[in-house]
Amino acid sequence: MQFDLNLLRLFLAVADAASFRAAADALGVTRSAVSQGIRRLEDTLGVALVQRTTRSVRLTEAGQRLHRQVSAPLHTVAAALEEAVDDGPPRGLLRVNVSSIAERFLAGPFVASFARAHPGITLDVTVSDDPIDLVAGGFDAGVRLGEVIEQDMVAVPLTGPQRQLAVAAPSYVQAHGVPQHPRDLVHHRCIGWRPAPETAPYRWEFSEDGRDFEVDVNAQVTTNDLRVMLRTALAGGGITFGLEENYRQWVESGQLVPLLQDWLPPFAGFFLYFPSRHNQPRKLRALVEHVRKFRDLE
Questions:
Q1: I need a surface site. Which of 58, 66, 141, 240 has the fewest CB within 10 A?
Q2: Which homologous superfamily is 86-155+269-297 in?
Q3: Greatest mean pLDDT among 28-37, 79-88, 142-151, 230-239
Q4: Residue ranges matching CATH 1.10.10.10 in the chain
């Protein structure tokens, strides 16, 4: 069977974007060209790859199978070709999937300084807390806590050790007192986090005498937005829980009070991670070098 390999590149763009229009924009072609290309690929293979509606695009079972089989090899080939002709400054689209709690990456200075240092690179940052397959998702790299990164990935430290904090506004503490042990939290008004509506709220994690344990707080307010958690706590709405660096400036200003610190030891921090491969694009090497320089400047 012979066919245009560019059709596979087009198919991957549609699969990754879940949209003909977004795929067309990413490839710099018309939506009609994308639609016709997918139809040509389906006709060649004799099977439907994409289900189209007026609102969405979904892969069929055959499309999902093809995506799993060709995604990694085509990304490897693309990286090798880019490296072969990449003799100038780093350039191209660099896609990074970042956890919503990675404050060091998302705060602004890191991204701004990288953009200034590498004007030829377009940095596309997707903020998500969902489990992610970098290769299948079309991402060059990700940023996650070290404990959740697969062992076959290359990981470069973005931060030092991190620590969770339970925090509340002084007005809440004055009105309701300070919990003396994490299990006392069940008697307090808490502000919780869940990644999505269909998932259970995050259980707050503590450690006592070297043993980890969780507290299933009865959160009166639950959200997937860290800003809602922070603002509700600042307004005296209860105790919330999260990474220390996300609350540091408000703790230092006295607007939030840290609680239960004896039960919250440090743990491995955030890492920039990416698949191990021989031909690493210069744009990715530039990001890795920037991470290292950024850490050295702190």
A1: 58
A2: Periplasmic binding protein-like II (3.40.190.10)
A3: 230-239
A4: 6-70
Q: Classify 164-263 by CATH class.
A: alpha beta
Q: Give the model's confidence band at 111: pLDDT under 50 very low, under 70 low, under 90 confident, else very high.
A: very high
Indicate the SS3 state at residue 258.
strand
Residue position matching structure tokens 């004896």: 262
So what's the pLDDT on residue 207?
Answer: 93
Tokens of 17: 């974007």
Whether 67 shows a pLDDT value over 80: the answer reads yes
CA–CA separation, 29 and 86 (whole Å): 23
Alpha helices in the chain (DSSP H): 6-17, 20-27, 31-45, 61-85, 103-106, 109-117, 134-137, 170-176, 226-234, 244-252, 282-297
Give the domain 6-70 fold: Arc Repressor Mutant, subunit A (1.10.10)
Alpha carbons 149 and 155: distance in angstroms, whole number: 8
Instruction: Break the chain down into helix, strand, coil percent, rounded to 5.
Output: 45, 25, 35
Amino acid, res. 247: Y
Using CA atoms, how far apart are residues 24 and 38, in angstroms rounded to an integer? 12
Apex 58 CA angle, 57 and 62, nearest 5:
135
Measured in whole angstroms, the distance separating CA 122 from the mean position of its chain's CA atoms is: 17
pLDDT of residue 150: 86
